[in-house]
Amino acid sequence: MEDIRLNVPLLRQRVPNLTSAARSVGLRSATVSNLCTGKIPVGRAEVRTLVALASLAKCSLDELILIGEEIEMIETGIKTLDLFAPLVKGGTAGLVARPKMGQLVVLAELFYRLKQQGYVTVLLKPEGDHPEIEDVAGDAEIVCNSVDEAFTQISNIGSTKDVVLSSDRSHVISNEIYNLQNRLHKSGVVSLTTLLVDLKGEAIDEGLPYGPLETLWQFDADLAVRHIYPAVNPVLSTSEIIEGADTDSLHQSIGQKAKKLLRRYKELRFLVQVHGMEALPNAETQTFMRGERLEAYLTQPLYVAEAFTGTAGVNVSLQEALQDVQRILDGDVDERDTKELMYIGRLQ
C-alpha cells in the first residue's frame, strides 16, 4: 500500500511533548493527531501546518513527508480492530480508555494472538503497584521491570524475530518509551511494534495522550456498560492503514460505509432510548436495525476470556469480516434476530 504520509517516528523522536509544542505554534491537537493517523491526508493539509511541524521537528519537509513507502498491516483476527483501525507493523498504537473498559483484556488478547503468529511479546511494567497488569503479564513472553532491562532483552532478539512491546503511558510522559524505540532501532531491531496503555485512565481526556500514533483505539463507555466487547469505538478509532489507503481500496470503502451506518445508528439509538421505537421515522427504521445488527456482529469471543465466559475464542480473517459486513450493509441478515449475531465468529 503506497501513500504520502508524515514521518511519525521522526516526530516522536524530535518532539516529545507534541501536544504542548503544537499548541505553542498555533496548531490544533486534533489536526496533528489526524495527520499522524492519516485521517487527514497529508495532501489535504495546509502548507503552514506542515511547515510548522517541520520547524518543531527541526527537519526539512522532505524528511517530514514520506512518499511511496509501504505500510504493512498486522492482521489480528479481531473483527472490529482489523476492520476499522488496523495495527501497523512497526508502528505505535495507543489504547485510550478509562479503567474497567476492557483495555487490558484486549492487550492480553493481542499478546496471545500475536504469539501464535511468531511475534515475541514484551511487557514493560510501570513503576508502582499495579496488580491489574499481572493478568497481562501471563500472556507476555518477556516481562521487564525497567527500560534498561527491556532494551537488553529486546536487543538480544535483534533482527531475528518481530517484537511487540507494551508500555504504560507513564513511560510516554517521561519520554523513556521513545528513547527506547530510538535506541533499539539504532541497535538493529528493525521490527518493533509498540502498544501503549494508560492504567490511570487519564489519556481519554487528552488531545494527544501518547503523542503521534499510527493507530488509535478509542474505547467506549456506552459499549462497555452494555457488555459490547471488545468495547472499541469503530467510529472514533483510526489507523494509517485505512485513512491513508487509496480511495479504491475495498477495505476502506466497506469500512467507511460501516462507520457511516454506526454513526447514524448511535444518533438514532439515543432517540429510541428517550422516546421509544415509535419515535423513529419510518425512513430510519431500516438504518437503526442494520446498525444494531452490525454492532452485535462486531462483538467477539476472546481466547483469554474463555475461562470467564465459557465461550471458545474465535479468529475471523479480514477478508471474512469484510464479506460479512457487506452482507449486513446489503440487508442479507435483516430478518435475523440481533441476539443471534452476538458473540459469534462469522455469519452463518
Automatic annotation (TrEMBL):
Residue ranges of domain ATP synthase A/B type C-terminal in the record: 246-323
Compartment(s) of residence: Membrane
Main subcellular localisation: membrane
Record's keyword terms, sorted: ATP synthesis, ATP-binding, CF(1), Ion transport, Membrane, Nucleotide-binding, Translocase, Transport
Listed InterPro entries: ATP-synt_VA_C (IPR055190), ATPase_a/bsu_AS (IPR020003), ATPase_alpha/beta_chains (IPR050053), ATPase_F1/V1_b/a_C (IPR024034), P-loop_NTPase (IPR027417)
Lineage: Bacteria, Bacillati, Bacillota, Bacilli, Bacillales
Signal peptide bounds: none
Protein name according to UniProt: ATP synthase subunit B
Pfam families, per the entry: ATP-synt_VA_C (PF22919)
Membership in a protein family: Belongs to the ATPase alpha/beta chains family.
Keyword Glycosyltransferase set for record: no
Species: Cohnella kolymensis
